[in-house]
Structures are given as structure tokens and as C-alpha cells.
Amino acid sequence: MINNNVFENKKAAYYTLGCKLNFAETSTIGKQLAEQGVRKALPGEKADICIINTCSVTELADKKCRQAIRKISRQHPGSYVVAVGCYAQLKPDEVSKIEGVDLVLGTGQKTEIAKFLNSFAHARNDDRIFVSPIKDIHTFTPSCSKGDRTRYFLKVQDGCDYYCSYCTIPFARGRSRNGRIADLVKMAEEAGKDGGKEIVLTGINIGDFGKSTGETFFDLVKALDKVESVERFRISSIEPNLLTDGILEFIAQSRRFAPHFHIPLQSGSDEVLKLMRRKYDTHLFASKIQKIKELLPDAFIGVDVIVGTRGETDEFFESAKQFIQSLPVSQLHVFSYSERQGTAALNIDYQVSPQTKQERSRQLLEISDRKIKDFYRSQVGTSRQALFEHTKRGNKMHGFTENYIKIETDYRISWINQLIPVTLGSFNENEVTMSI
Ligand code: SF4
User: What CATH number corresponds to the domain at position 74?
Assistant: First the structure.
């Protein structure tokens, strides 16, 4: 229960689960409450308000959110607990029943959190769920996470119109929409002036940028490449069919866009890609990887793969594995398929057992381990620019090169958040880091 003047001398604690977009949005919520006079609770300090930005990409994500909410409300007894984000949008009743939850806000309400706190925080009542039907959400709310990390996350797009058969995100985040290029360029300039050396472009399907403004993702990339106050941009993740040759050729000659690509493949089998309702086949995917390697031979390419989706027979998995092994990529991000309520995949009869999923995951992680070590070895002796982070581990610090090589070196306070020219030295296989 909070006294009548809801925000006066209040402290808030923020917890974010899930994707980079969630981090950017939590930062925006924090900024809004700070404008109302709510300061961020220091570590160990008891907060008056707790904001949990949830994720619902898998069953496991839901479970982690429930655990986090219970733990946070125990850590901050008597605080006003607000759950926002995808889990809150998809299952508001379930979230409202989690012990400690006082208020549940959906995708359309989370950015008006101050208004809801003002109305409801000073009196406990039954109106605790405020979630609009996802079809009614059309507004794009810009976000940029500032200051609490070396990298800034700039939200450029939200929602998705793809409806892949295994995915609930379109039901949690709504139709594809985006900010205007002019506004996003301004936000990037401000982040740069604020000390942001690197900005990660985030969204749900960022290659689909432009749906709500008639602009294109390529236009956005070209406009951001002119932002002098920012040293480098990274594209968080982009669908293969939306990563055009034009964008790749531009990035290959651009001064600011990093040679680092994160591209969802999801399956290396055309039959399974059809069942997933993905918008490309393995031929297109392979041609994109080849194009990247032609233009940017030292580019880092991370690839998402889901194992054990419905319909993934042993035969399809074997052909998928062969295809993935043939790709000159740097790392795999391997996920186990998770049954999601309301998805079309549930209409596919063939199911994969948990044990088989685990085994397939193990096999792909083994391939990934070989690929990333081969990639790191190929970089020994090359010259790069590394951005060093503020975190100190023992007497060491870490940084990342433009092509996403992790560097470990002696701690130098003068190198924090600085881009330093380096020559890559030896490769530490256990830590998957490079010396300089
Ligand atoms: S592209 Fe597919 S997997 Fe990605 S968010 Fe959209 S529906 Fe989900």
C-alpha cells in the first residue's frame, strides 16, 4: 500500500526478463517514473514500487517470470508490485494471481505506468488488470536504454506480422510498427552525445521496419550511418529474407555498422521451415551467408536454431544438421521448442520427446562450439577496434571488437567505454576470449 502522494520520496526497483527490447522499454519506464520524482532503489535498498518487465517466449520464460515475481516481492515486503510485458499481455489473469502482484499492465498500458500508479497505488482494489486486446494496439513507443550498460539499446520497431507457427510474440506485441527515421536519428544523436559509443538496434522484426511510416530498414541504416556522435551500430537480429543485398553491400562499406549479424534460421530442413511457416528456404539462407562472407570475410554470424519443433522427424533433423554444419557461420543459439497456447504448430501431430530434444540440442551445441573456436582462431593476429566495458573481474576487464570477438585484458580505468585499437593475440579456448 502506498500513501496518497504516490511518487513523493519513493524508490523503485526494476527487473527485466527477456529480450533487448524489454531492457530498452524498462529503461524508458524508469525515466518516466524519475520524471515523477521516483528514484531508482540502490542495491539492497527496500523499494516502494517494483516493476517487473516479463517475457513469454517459452513455457520456461513464464516459469522464470513467476519465480522472479515471487522472489522480488519477498525481497521488498509491502512494496507495490507491477507486472508488465509479454507474459502480462498474454496471460493477465494468471499473472495477477501470482503472490505479491498488485497491478498487471499490458503492452498498450506499460508506457502509461505513471498514470496507473497515480490512480491505483494508493488504494488496494479489485481493478488490478489493465490489458487491451492486441488488435487495438497501433502506437509505437520509442525507447532507448541509457547509462546502465556500455551498449545502448535503441528500439526502432515493435510487433510482428509473420505469425510463424510456433511463436506467440505477435499475440503479445501486436502488428508490426515503427518509429519515424527522423525521430530515431535524433535519439541516436542524443545517446551519442550522452557518451554512447555503441548502439544496438532492437525490435521484434526490425527488417520489417517501415510498415507504419512508409520508410524502409535500408533508409534507416543509411540515415543512422551519418550520426557522427555514435562510433558504431549493431543490428540485434534480422530475418534472412529481409537482409537484402543492398543492405549488406552498404554495411560492407559503412563506417559505423559493425560486421556482426544475428540471423534466425530456426531449422536447416526445408520441410520443417514450411511447417514453421518461415518466409525463406535453406537455399536463400545459404545464399545470404555466402554474400556476407564474400563482402565481409571476418564478419561474426550468429544463427538461431530451434530443435524439436512439431514435425521435426529424425530424417528432417539429420538433413537440418548437415545443412547447419555446411554453413560458414560463427555461432549457433540453440533453443528447444516449447508448446505455446494459441499457436498453429499445435495442429501438427508429430511431436518430439523431451529426451530427443535434449539430444538434438546437445548435437547442435557441439557444432556451435567447434564453429566459434574456429572463428576465434581465424582472428588471431588481426587488428580491430575494441569497446571496453566498465565491469571489473578480478584485475581484468572485457571488451568486444566490431566483429564481436570478446577480449580479456588487464583492467585500465582509462579504457572504460573507450574504443581502443588492438591486435588480437592468443585464444583462450576455455573462456572463449582473446588476449591483446
Ligand atoms: S518473425 Fe516469426 S518468430 Fe520472429 S517474432 Fe515474428 S512470428 Fe515470432
Answer: 3.40.50.12160
- For residue 226, count other CB atoms closer than 10 A to its CB: 13
- What spacing in Å lies between the alpha carbon of 205 and ligand 1's midpoint? 7
Position 148 confidence tier, pLDDT thresholds 50, 70, 90: low
Distance 254 CA to ligand 1 centre (A): 28
- The domain tally of the chain equals 3
Q: What are the pLDDT digits (tens) for 309-329?
A: 999 999 999 999 999 999 999
Domain that includes residue 114, residue range: 11-132
Question: Ligand 1 centre and the CA of 424: distance in Å?
Answer: 36
**Is 428 within the bounds of a domain?**
yes
Burial 70-83 (b: 16+ CB within 10 A, else e): eebbeebeebbbbb
pTM of the model: 0.92
Cβ atoms 110, 18 nearer than 8 A: no
pLDDT of 261-279, one tens digit each? 999 999 999 999 999 999 9
Q: Are residues 282 and 231 part of one domain?
A: yes
Closest CA to 117 of 235, 42, 37, 173: 37
Q: How far apart are CA 18 and CA 94, in angstroms?
A: 18
pLDDT for residue 5: 60
Query: What does the pLDDT average to over 300-312?
Result: 98
